[in-house]
Amino acid sequence: MGLFKDFVSQTRKPEGFLGRMMLSGMNSGHAKLADWGFTHLPAITPTKAIDLGCGGGRNAGELLKKYPNAHIAAIDYSDLSVEKARDYNKDMIAAGRCTVRQGDVSNLKLPAETFDIATAFETVYFWPGLEKCFAQVEYGTTMEEIGHIMVYAYERNTLKMPGIVRAFMGKVYKSPKLLNKMLVKKDAKNAENAAANPGSFETQTQIPPESGYDFSYHNLACPLANFARKYGHEAYMPYLCNLDYVHFGLLGAPLFREHTCFEDGDYCDFKLKLNAEPLPYWPPVFSQDNPYK
User: I need a labelling partner for 107 at 20 to 30 A (CA). Which of 39, 75, 135, 221 fits?
Assistant: First the structure.
């Protein structure tokens, strides 16, 4: 058990024999998620890019392929990772298109606008102080950028569900009778919980549904909205509300909402229209030219 724990701890900063074992599988083990991430990179033509927490160097190599006119820098906290990444990209290093060095993401000391794009794959949970680290590459410093990070994280969380589970949930959302049956039971449980814990979520399934929709329910209380108001985090709420569109959209369920507890002070409405297409969730639904929130 102790050896296994030591091996797993190598994910943060690979060192020694166990670190070499970890790095030998890191490139292939992270490939599926990294390739999904590459599909979300902007359609730009950068001349300089950086991969933070480069590990075994595979993702730096993919950046070199995706942006053939760019110089790619790769940084990792582990000297062993730097060695592995240099070996993986040795031809591009020799060609002058890639550099790999040891560095601490919380203390990069990079001049402004050094890079056109920065990536970080399966590494941010090891970073010491996210706000400070993101500020090093000047991302996550505006509300829109923070909202974009929220969307990526929520997409990842939803897509981690097994495909068969997502398919089943998508079918449930397209069955109003089944939804009504399930959520009426949930209404009762939420009411019981709210009585014991004031301020918790409370829901009310609308039977029949609101005019023009196949299913609807109201969220009568939102602890997230209450927390945001109490502690001065109101700017986050529209982006948090937008995550409902991410979840429903990835499951193929066309969600429409015209009220939120935060903005209107009455309720959040969740309405499904079976013959419609899900709304695109980026840019955020509230910023699009439509009446939905």
Answer: 39
